[in-house]
Design brief:
By secondary structure, the chain is α/β, with parallel strands linked by helices. The chain has 8 helices and 12 strands. Strands 3-2-1-4-5 form a 5-stranded mixed sheet. It has a 5-stranded mixed sheet with strand order 8-7-6-11-12. A hairpin with a 2-residue loop joins strand 2 and strand 3. It is globular, with a radius of gyration of 20 Å.
Amino acid sequence: MIIGIDIGSTITKAVSIENRKVLKKVKSKASDAVTSGAGALGKLMLENNINIRDIEKIIITGAGASKIKNNIFDIPTEKIDEFTAIGTGGMFQVKRDNIVITNIGTGTVLIHAKKDEITHLGGSGVGGGTILGLSKKLLQSTTFNDIMAMAKAGNIDQVDLLLEDIMDSELSFLGRDATAANFGKVLDGAKQEDFALAILNMVYQVIGMLSVFAARSKNTDSVVVTGSGSDNPIGKKVLSVITKMHGISFEFPPDADYTTAIGAGLS
């Protein structure tokens, strides 16, 4: 059995893999990488009755992997770079290669994955960390559940400047309800719910457009979305609008938030 662990800046994910099949998966959170990595492994073993003698090796990746210098629990422990893990895990998830992957975590990473080559196309500091950071100041909230609850009741045209605010007709392929400027209006009566929706809208619009550019650079019309931010319902709606405007579809594989850990375990 191989254990793949993705030690992120906020959440750590671990999966057990045998014969290229994902058996179990868990998430954990801790204040430092060593505690988080060891904690995720311990949780995986205890919750799933995994005997330590059955673990052949552990493969770690993610932002915190560099902090772990020795074997975990005396089990042979290897490291793999995060880009390779994302690409490997993404191809495994969708069962094909030559794909563009957008991995949404604290920030966002764009990967082009083929069987014989995994390329880091670029990325952005805009991601889940942006949502939490802006919400802390604008909404006095630091939990995704609270942010999402507020955003569901939000009205985007209280905060964002839309094309209909400045034009009487459509522009190119853009409808009059398209965003002209994120946070470009901010009416005096704007509520916290409106700001919550505007934060999510801005983050996923940035991610979506970067994904469009990456897909076009590789002559594909689809993008595989992975990472912790892949299952955000409001984010998915934003990306669906981008699909309608630009013709680039977004694919959300099962267990997309475990893709990097899966890729580590398969490497």
